[in-house]
Specification:
358 residues; nucleotide-binding; transport; binds adenosine-5'-triphosphate; alpha+beta; ABC_transporter-like_ATP-bd; 8 helices; 22 strands; ABC transporter ATP-binding protein; 2 domains; OB fold (Dihydrolipoamide Acetyltransferase, E2P)
């Protein structure tokens, strides 16, 4: 296992990049701790694969360095980096049995026979493949084959890191949560440095101790799942994490009052932010509905969606959508007014957090 340092790392696919916009990966500085479980989370095209390929050695960055345990590996080939990778689709040998597939990465590295048997047995048990262990991979389901792929990544005990690139894409939805939880357990048991690439927030938040959120080539926040929820550093994080995401409303600010259109919202504390490109962010969990006439902000209700234990109330405030998350069965007044918990109102300037809820 190793720590991984990204030292002023950036990448452009263009031969002569001139502006920030030319970089598929904008400058990032970060130290990923030895034995940590990290997720790279972001929408399609945000630069996740570019970063993963730099770590694995498939791509040499146009700027900066990458270090494993302080040793510069920027120009080392993938096979010289001693990492394991699990891809979206199973990479296994159909003609080999499950056991033979799992043993293969160890045989390649001339691991002693007894150790191989021990590790393979351990993987078979961990991945619940006991009843299939001596069958050829050819006849197995896509789920089972991908489990073997995961096992082939995890079976090596001496790797610097294990990289997972959307490994649950082919897995059946009902199996996904099982494998997600399993991977988390495996990380606890095995203690490898693990980096998991996904565009699915549930996968990222379940698996990782720290989530690296990427947007348009930029790392916009690195934090624990709680930090991303409580204190989104960028409006994109607020919008992308949470279901539904944070409400983001363009506003002006004077003193302790934010104004959305002609609606004044009391921030309780004066905000340090002023000028243009300001936005108010509040999560639906901290929006309540009251009857009009009390102190709330009158709104139009567009829709109510029941999602099990909660209901999402979709409202419209002066042309801007605002969602409120209410408990199942909680009463929704016919003439509704919104109330924002002032302690949970964040203020953003140019999409970046400048003031978190008091
Ligand atoms: N080989 C390449 N040559 C030129 N541009 C590329 C190349 N690979 C990726 N890009 C561009 O770099 C940006 C980041 O792509 P990347 O594949 O890293 O994103 P991603 O977050 O992994 O997306 P996805 O989830 O769709 O794989 C995109 O704009 C993409 O079009």
């Amino acid at each position: 296992m190793a720590s991984i340092t990204l030292d002023r790392l950036a990448h452009s696919y263009l031969p002569n990049p001139t502006s920030d916009a030319d970089f598929a990966l904008k400058e990032i500085n970060y130290n990923w701790e030895d034995g940590g479980a990290y997720a790279l989370l972001g929408p399609s095209g945000c630069g996740k694969t570019t970063l993963l390929n730099i770590i694995s050695g498939l791509l040499v960055p146009s700027k900066g360095h990458i270090k494993f345990d302080g040793k510069d590996v920027t120009h080392l080939q993938p096979e010289e980096r001693n990492i394991a990778q699990v891809f979206q689709f199973p990479v296994i040998y159909d003609t080999m049995t499950v056991r033979e597939n799992l043993a293969f990465p160890l045989i390649n590295r001339r691991v002693p026979r007894e150790t191989i048997t021990e590790r393979v047995n351990e993987m078979v048990e961990i991945l619940d493949l006991g009843d299939k262990a001596d069958r050829k991979a050819r006849g197995l389901t896509a789920d089972e084959k991908q489990k073997i792929s995961l096992g082939r990544g995890l079976v090596r005990y001496d790797v610097n890191a294990i990289l997972f690139d959307e490994p649950l894409t082919v897995i059946d939805p009902h199996m996904k949560w099982q494998l997600r939880t399993k991977l988390k357990d495996l990380h606890r048991q095995l203690g490898h440095t693990m980096i998991y690439v996904t565009h699915d927030q549930t996968e990222a938040l379940t698996f990782a101790d720290k989530v690296v959120v990427m947007y348009a080539g930029e790392v916009v926040q690195i934090g624990t799942p709680e930090e991303l929820f409580e204190e989104p550093a960028h409006t994109f994080v607020g919008y992308f994490i949470g279901s539904p995401g944070m409400n983001v409303l363009p506003c002006n600010i004077t003193g302790r009052t934010a104004t959305v259109g002609s609606t004044a919202i009391d921030l309780v504390q004066p905000s340090p932010a002023s000028g243009e490109n300001l936005e108010l962010g509040i999560r639906p969990e901290f929006v309540t509905l009251t009857a009009r006439g009390s102190e709330g902000i009158p709104v139009r209700i567009d829709a109510v969606e029941n999602i099990g234990r909660f209901q999402i109330v979709r409202t419209n405030l002066e042309g801007h959508p605002v969602n409120a998350l209410l408990q199942e069965g909680e009463e929704i007044p016919a003439d509704a007014a919104l109330r924002f918990d002032p302690a949970r109102i964040n203020i953003y300037k140019n999409s970046h957090l400048v003031r978190r809820g008091a």
